[in-house]
Design a protein that fits this description.
This protein is an all-alpha fold. The protein has one domain: Na+/H+ antiporter like fold, CATH 1.20.1530. Helices cover 83% and strands 0% of the residues. It is built from 15 helices and no strands. It is globular and about 60 Å long.
Length: 327
């Protein structure tokens, strides 16, 4: 229910706003429904890495609230990426035949990765479980699989980021393996790749393009659609699942953050000629505002005292389950 409420209201509201402002902030060669779907898909994203980090830092990852939020955010992001893959295929395909070819090849690629490649990578996880070490051979595989997957998806015509996303899905699921891999790769990613990506995004952002009454009205409508769809949609879904008011609005605030995920999404759209510089700049502002507001909204709804109570309750429950397992 939370996953559906996290994507459907934002998608629908973004779609309506996209239809309304199609002639204002869209490219003339993009069909109205494709533009509206792209905007809805962008607004339906959640900054999953940021959400996970906040929950882990506060010891809430094992609470019912934390597990449900992480699962819902991952489903929402996966659905948005699938939508973007479809829109990219339709946009880059030479007519219906070209689009169908891209879609079929994408489905074959995903099926091969999620079955054959995933099975082939299992020994990697077993070797790490036996030794506790990520050796040079394992790192070669970890680096080459995403690069190869990215090259294949770029050749297919749905952009390389999808290959990297699927490559992450097929890696061994062992938590310690992923923690070790994260520790090895994060220094390079955070020191080199992320600054370059944000610099690239900044160079593509021209805020002067959204000056004027009509453009500001379009930005306000997009911002409002994104906020209402995510924040209120997720908060009301949590209330419907039986959570109290504080927990519900805390999750709504976190799910409303879009962060790096929407920046990747809209950079693909801009690179593929699916959106204008003006819409790109608007969605960059949406990313900045919703991400900056996520933690304050969370703290407003769930102050430290209430947060600590829930973390302690989760710790007691985990200890009790461990004792039952040992016994």
């Amino acid at each position: 229910m939370l996953a559906v409420s996290g994507i459907l209201p934002s998608l629908l509201l973004g779609f309506v706003v996209g239809l309304a402002f199609w002639g204002t902030v869209s490219r003339p060669d993009i069909p109205r429904w494709q533009f509206a779907l792209f905007l809805g898909g962008a607004l339906s994203l959640t900054a999953f890495p940021m959400l996970a980090r906040i929950l882990y830092e506060r010891g809430l990852e094992n609470t019912k609230l934390g597990r449900l939020s992480l699962m819902a955010a991952s489903i929402d992001d996966a659905a948005a990426w699938c939508l973007l893959a479809l829109l990219t295929a339709l946009h880059l395909g030479s007519g219906v035949d070209g689009a169908l070819r891209t879609i079929v090849l994408s489905a074959v690629f995903a099926a091969v990765m999620l079955t054959l490649v995933k099975r082939a990578l299992r020994p990697l996880g077993r070797e790490f479980a036996r030794t506790g070490v990520l050796g040079p051979n394992a790192m070669y595989v970890v680096v080459l699989v995403p690069l190869t997957a990215g090259w294949l998806t770029d050749w297919i015509g749905i952009y390389s980021v999808f290959g990297g996303f699927v490559a992450g899905l097929v890696m061994p699921r062992d938590a310690k393996f992923r923690e070790a891999l994260h520790g090895r790769m994060m220094a390079v990613v955070s020191t080199l790749l992320l600054p370059v990506f944000f610099t690239f995004s900044g160079l593509n952002t021209d805020l002067q393009g959204i000056a004027g009454g009509t453009m500001l009205l379009a930005f306000a409508a997009i911002m409002l659609a994104g906020f209402i769809g995510k924040y209120l949609g997720c908060a009301l879904a949590m209330r419907g699942l039986g959570f109290d008011r504080r927990e519900s609005y805390a999750v709504g605030g976190l799910m409303n953050a879009r962060g790096l995920m929407i920046l990747i999404f809209i950079n693909i759209g801009l690179a593929q000629g699916m959106i204008t510089q003006q819409l790109f700049a608007m969605l960059v502002l949406v990313a900045v505002i919703t991400t900056a507001g996520a933690l304050p909204l969370y703290r407003l709804a769930l102050p430290e005292r209430y947060e600590r109570e829930r973390a302690e309750e989760a710790a007691r429950r985990a200890a009790a389950q461990e004792m039952e397992t040992v016994g």
